[in-house]
Amino acid sequence: MQSNMPAQAYIDEAWFGRERDLLFKPLWQFIGLKVMLDKNNAFIKRTLFGIPVVVQNFHGELRAFENICPHRQNPIQVQPHGVRPLFCSYHGWSFDSEGGTRIPHEDALFRFAPEERACIRLRRFALEVVGNLVFVNLSADPLPIKRQFGAAMLASLAASSAAFDGEVIMTTYDGRFNWKLAYENLRDEHHPRYLHARTLYQEVRFEASIDECGVEALRRQREQGIGDRERALALLRSFSGGGRDAPMQAAPNERWHSNVERYRDQDWYYNWLVFPNLHIASADGGHSFIVEHHVPVGPGRTEFMVYFVTAKKKRPYSASAAVLHAHMMGADKVLREDIDVMEQIQQTLYEGARPAHLGDYEFVNAGIEHWYLNLMEGSFAL
Ligand code: FES
Ligand SMILES: [Fe+2]
Fold it and tell me: Does the beta carbon of 72 sit less than 6 angstroms from any atom of ligand 1?
């Protein structure tokens, strides 16, 4: 079937700005792992679609704020994560869990009028914790998170991520591709047979197939249009899902596996696709996990942040850092295969390039595309 996605959707700055306003601002976005925020004053700093955000632990309470000092707009936290009070190093202003500001030398040097002083506080964002996953919402009137993911998906994310250990390593790839290429790639079960033939496909035989009910639902969706916001939200919830994906070719068998509390006990590849830009998987039957966050930076740039974690340790063991490192090096081969293709596609696209031709097996991506284009054209708002 013919895709309707114009090349501009992947390369155009103005299109990217509309995506930020219509899709990302209203939606809950992943920002980091709760295990990285488990101490008083622990923080995570990220830029989500151009907006600087900090999540800070205040004596066990997690709060999300815009990471901009209200004095001279210096970023308050500078490192991507760490343990440090919410304190601006430029002129020493500090901030409490409500976003209130303590200003040294306030009377002597600043003399704000009471009405101005009342406005000097941090902009706060809504925050939700799902198991080990921390989400923020940049809207002033956030959609309840259940309406974005649905109760079953939230329960599955909570249960699987609760199995994560506290020792985490992460890396970031500076992806020269549009973020949508990543969700399309992840929902394409046919490519591993070719692109990952010598890596992931050796361990897991992903089988693409045509789901006649899915194809029929897509046909109806295209015929009838999206309809109202309720229907648009129901479709949105259907874009995220997860759990067991495909059986492993051989039972996972590493010496360190006996050191962790395995998530479930099945020799399957687990896969959680969290629309729009988060992916969690376990390629060793629940002994370890990879969390991929595709952070849009520009139409042709995506910060590809990847976390590696094992299931919870039964007790500390000396090789745990080496295990995470080996996990990262193994995943790097597969990730680079995908990133190389996405970068090649990005370089190939130009304004006016002809759209793609999707097979019926790609009905999921076709359904998302149809919904997404309706959102961009203003047929509904989130
Ligand atoms: S810019 Fe932050 S205290 Fe001055
Ligand atoms: Fe892939």
Answer: yes
User: 289 CB under 6 A from ligand 1?
Assistant: no
Number of helices and strands in the chain (H, E): 12, 15
**Span(s) in the chain for CATH 3.90.380.10:** 1-25+144-382
Within 10 angstroms of residue 350's Cβ, the number of other Cβ atoms is 9
Residue nearest (by alpha carbon) to ligand 1 atom 4:
91
Ligand 1 pocket test, candidate residues 86, 91, 112, 121, most atoms within 8 A of CB: 91
Whether 112 lines ligand 1, by a CB cut-off of 6 Å, is no
Would you say 168 and 42 are in contact if contact means Cβ atoms under 8 Å apart? no
Average pLDDT of the chain to the nearest whole number: 96
- Which of 3.40.50.620, 2.102.10.10, 3.90.226.10, 2.60.40.1930 is the CATH number of 28-142? 2.102.10.10
pTM of the model: 0.96
Domain with CATH 2.102.10.10 in the chain: 28-142
Q: pLDDT (tens digit, 9 = 90+) per residue, 119-169?
A: 999 999 999 999 999 999 999 999 999 999 999 999 999 999 999 999 999
Q: Cα–Cα distance between 177 and 95 in angstroms, integer? A: 37
Domain over 1-25+144-382 is classified CATH 3.60.20.10? no
Tell which one of 93, 102, 105, 110 to mutate to probe ligand 1, the residue whose CB is within 8 A of the most ligand atoms.
93
Atom of ligand 1 nearest to the CA of 72: 1
The verdict on the CB of residue 4 being under 6 Å from ligand 1 is: no
DSSP codes of every residue in 316-364 = --TTHHHHHHHHHHHHHHHHHHHHHHHHHHHHH--TTPPPPB--GGGHH
